[in-house]
Amino acid sequence: MDPLIDEKLVLTLTRSTTEFVRENLYLSAEKEAYGPSRNEGLCFESCSAVDFTGEINGKMYLCMDGYTKLKLLPRIAERFQIDPTMRGMADSVLLEFSNQLASSVVEELKSGGFEIQLGPPENLSHKIVPVDLNLFRQYILIFFLRDRRAREYLGRLYIVLVVQKYAQQ
């Protein structure tokens, strides 16, 4: 196994997220913080998870607070041509966004020679999600979102990457 796999994952995720947000929402997503995390769980107002399997197994959580969700939802809905005012569509819009983001990351990893498949997105908003640190390594990336043209702050996007540890022989 590649000893730098985690670094490659985090760098790919960082670059793909920045490009995806810029190309799809026309926003600036500047990496504000990054680091390994020892949190035994997570809970956000808006949280969706996409699992991946193959050479690397784990999950990517796309998380944000209520303010950021309210600011991004109309932009995401417009991008995917969905009416966000329809009852129950907000979660679907965010699930589709997280699925598209995860797909762009996986495509980037596939072009780098990794065999990875995506699972379906899952809504985990307002739920406590435990993370078993004996089985998984965890990284958190925080992106500062803003619309430079409108000079508007849109909040922070949190991406939590959970990667399965190697089996010990």
Beta fraction of the residues? 35-45%
N-to-C CA distance: 14 Å
Number of helices: 3
Helix/strand order = HEEEEHHEEEE
- Globular, elongated, flat, extended or rod-shaped: what is the shape? globular
- Biggest sheet record: 6 strands, antiparallel
Radius of gyration: 16 Å
Give the mean pLDDT: 90
Report the count of strand segments: 8
Give the % helix: 25-40%
Protein structure class: alpha+beta
Low-pLDDT ranges: none
Report on this model:
This protein is of the alpha+beta class and 169 residues long. The chain is 34% helix and 37% strand. The protein has 3 helices and 8 strands; from the N terminus they run αββββααββββ. A 6-stranded antiparallel sheet has the order 1-7-8-4-3-5. The protein has a two-stranded antiparallel ribbon with strand order 2-6. Helix 1 crosses helix 3. The two termini are 14 Å apart. 28% of the residues are buried. The model has no long low-confidence stretch (mean pLDDT 90).
Observed structural traits:
six-stranded antiparallel β-sheet, 169 residues, globular, two-stranded antiparallel sheet, 3 helices, alpha+beta, 37% strand
